[in-house]
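Subgroup meeting minutes
Present: P.N., E.W., G.H.
Scribe: E.W.

1. P.N. recapped why we're keeping a running log of single-chain structure predictions: easier to compare across weeks, and new members can see raw inputs and outputs side by side.
2. G.H. added today's entry (308 aa).
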Amino acid sequence: MTPKEVLALFELPFPELLYRAQTAHRAHFDPATVQLSTLLSVKTGGCPEDCAYCPQSRRYQTGVEDEALLPVDEVLAAARAAKENGATRFCMGAAWRGPKQADLEKFIPFVAAVKGLGLETCATLGMLKAGQAEQLRDAGLDFYNHNLDTSPEFYGDIITTRDYEDRLETLGRVRAAGIKVCCGGIVGMGESRRDRAALIAQLASLDPYPESVPINALVKVEGTPLFDAPALDELEFVRTIAAARITMPKAWVRLSAGREAMSESTQALCFLAGANSIFYGEKLLTTGNPQAARDRALFQRLGLIPLQ
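Output recorded in log:
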């Protein structure tokens, strides 16, 4: 779809938009089922990039302490806890611009260890060089996350240390290696509605579109350039979820960062709009996330059932 076509979805009356999204959702999924993923930062801070939203950039003073790559037994313990809490996918993030070969060789044992627990595996390690996606595939990696973040037009306002083509190149390497693609973006960074529509259009135009689409609401962290960004209307966030569901009907559309500040009513509307996956646990890399007990209580109230 084109940005203009997606923008037309955003501008539908809210009841019509949700009806179309729910219709697309029900055509491919049980609307009462939600997939649970847990995200662990396996290497924190010290990133050389200048992503304006990220507290892990070494360019900003955010209070995030640099931490070396975790030992495999610590990663495994976190994965076991995630599985016990109902997660079916375990995502591991490292604050690198892209892994050096030595970094990748240290990371690869994490994949086999987590997969041995019966969990789906996902990694977000930054840009991949030629041959690295194949190494991750051979280790058993199921998903690779590499977000586009925003529209091509707004991208330069958020990041200058890599360009849009760099991101698309990594996604191409992941897809060519046969790994499932997890790719979404962040809203609430000061972008326009047209930028949000252009992001969704770009994602939907990937061939094929991502199997997993995380939609993040900006988490404002003091010390980052976007700390004072204007708040995004929560219904606009719901519209973004609905547009993602309509344009990528078979994807897992995930409520990701920002749920900590989101009302339960807004989350319920997101599920109605076609969201069927969440990040589950107390932290997303370095920022807060609703605790598992709160999520279970919300699921019970809404009649939602975690995917087994």
